[in-house]
């Protein structure tokens, strides 16, 4: 699973190499608007006639990609590192399948580590039901709710939430690396 995802990550990194140099941040509105200059991107890469990439860039998924990842100051991830720093490595591996496979496996390992930061935590397995357990009736009576206790708990929670600082994510934001300019990626 992770290796297939790593292959697609690499593919999209190759397709979109240099996309950050074609982003324009427009600050006329109260909220900044990020615009992607498609013609410049395709022209500088020599892919104006490429129907596939043109359709990808015109799609809703790419528009969402630009609005989500176009901000110059946000949390960076593996894709940003690939697009910004691994350009030469990906180019060099094009004719060498063993190196390409090695890189895909490294990316898959990084994806796995991102999703499982604490591998030593074991998940508790749910025991299998005993034989014939489906025949027994296990309906427990629902307890009566004490309205006074419910109101007390609600008031306590409200008091705590009003005095608590707003919740923040642990991700550190940084300036997203632009990577090499688009003109470097002339494709055949």
From TrEMBL:
GO terms for biological process: regulation of Rab protein signal transduction. InterPro entries: dDENN_dom, DENN_Domain_GEFs, Tripartite_DENN. It comes from the Eukaryota. GO terms for molecular function: guanyl-nucleotide exchange factor activity. Signal peptide: none annotated. One of its GO terms (cellular component) is cytoplasmic vesicle. Residues 1-76 form the UDENN domain. This is MTMRD protein. It comes from Donacobius atricapilla.
